[in-house]
Amino acid sequence: MPGLCAASRARVLSELAGSLYGPVPRPPDALEVSCQPWTGSHALWLRITARVGTGAFTVDAALWLPSGPGPAPLIAGLDFLGPVGMSADPGFPLDPDAVVSPRPDLGAADGRLRDAMRGASTYRWPRDLLLRRGYALLLSCYGSWVPDDPQAWRAHGVKPLIDPDGPSGAISLWAWALMRLLDVAEKWPEIDAGRMTVAGHSRLGKAALWAAAQDGRIRGVYANQSGCAGAALSRHPEGETLAQLADRFPHWLCPDPVTDPGALPMDQDRLIAACAPRGVYLAAAAGDGWADPAGSYRALQMAARAWPDAHIDTPPEIALRPDQPILSGPLGWHLRPGGHEMLPQDWVRVLNWLDRLSPASEDARDHRGRAG
Ligand code: GCU
């Protein structure tokens, strides 16, 4: 059987939950979706309500569907601005409860979504390219699910709904959010539930990997410059350290995470390996040493043994040169010139990888993350 055996994967998930992220909470008791056109962006505006006991929480998302016959493969993601960043059209609401951490030039010192952010992240999710290549895109704002703020995150969204006093950090809760997007997508007639990919940039790449390690419905994960607590080895002495991350973003991890690399039960290569047999694509940038390209490539090489049909044997001296993309079986890698961003040129390569991925088989889809 490809991938880690069930017992090994369970051990990896439990060790990573215990030492770093806290567990991904159980699915909600119910999930309801309403839908209306967002004509200004040729999209559907979805309102998703998750219910747990007597509690409920409602969040917005947008879905773009390609034209053409047959159900489409899906790319689902959380974004720093969400659908608001995808169009200048004011038809999508600004969530007053969202707390986000967008680029400083967007002037959001208080972390609140505002009109100036409309259309500011279209380059991160090149919708027309994705649609032209036949992919549907489902996006939501990460800060609506879990406010990205060490004070505010407990007050709104997923945390108070399902884990008020529990150990799950925001990365786990964003992974939970991605799984809810898949709950919605897998029932959508125009979406091919066997071909659902999750994607994310940076902190949201960390969450995408953690979701892909848990949820058998995912066919592939694209983690862009996910760095520390993402694809980069914690024991590799470059880039951000766990201690720095835990200090600046205490809400991202479980309470009292293990930040001494020597004391970790395992390194991040196991997180990547736990995604097998699903596809994994990692992208890095030459100017983004903080996200540790070399430590991420090494982790991918170490993890690759979990895929019998992948061989990541390109020496690092070559793989870490700009524009030497690698595709092997369900795995992919590239490093491009430039800095910390997710760009259309990254997506061009990612789509080449995605086009080759075979659908998640019914057998592989164990539905562990599905809402009841
Ligand atoms: C900070 C943080 C990183 C994170 C990044 C981002 O730089 O230190 O761990 O990946 O923000 O999400 O953009």
From TrEMBL:
Pfam families: GCE_fung (PF22244)
Entry GO MF terms: carboxylic ester hydrolase activity
Organism of provenance: Pseudoponticoccus marisrubri
Domain of life: Bacteria
Stated name of the protein: 4-O-methyl-glucuronoyl methylesterase-like domain-containing protein
4-O-methyl-glucuronoyl methylesterase-like domain sequence ranges: 168-307
Keywords in alphabetical order: Hydrolase, Serine esterase, Signal
Gene3D superfamilies: alpha/beta hydrolase
